Amino acid sequence: MQCSSTACAKITTCNTAKLPLNHAFSVRPLQPTDYAAWRPLWDGYNGFYGRFGATALPEHITQTTWQRFHDESEPMWCLVAQDDASGELLGLAHCVFHRSMTRIEPVCYLSDLFTREAARGRGVGRALIDAVYAAARAARSSRVYWQTHETNAAGRMLYDKMAKHHGFIVYAQEL
Known about the structure:
Blueprint: H1 5-9, E1 13-14, E2 25-29, H2 35-48, H3 59-69, E3 76-83, E4 89-98, E5 107-115, H4 124-138, E6 144-145, H5 153-162
């Protein structure tokens, strides 16, 4: 299941009280023509988590990820926040729908959320999460969840207002 055009079509302009009236932004699905504007956000997200320089993701992973966002058979999808005046992309949300052993309906994993540093504190992250919720509802998903690093204090302040932390700890093993 992908974020179909029907689900993502319900995403509209997001104006927040924190933004000046002349600085509105919209949340919309990623388009194939967005690569040059998306890439700095993707690189910024990866850099935030220490994946840069010698530890950067291999280029083929980035290219495959980009292609998957535009493949209708893939469950991965992306929303971006765009400044209405300048057209600049301000943030991104990467998601994937998947099955669950505890639910019949698909669930939505919000894999990556990133806001350009200059746009932080203006409601972009909140608008992206709200838009993910709307797209997941439209796709009949029963849950949206995500994880963040324990040191992401600014992100966690927002997340604590938008979702419930259930206390789980993530374990992973590279294979």
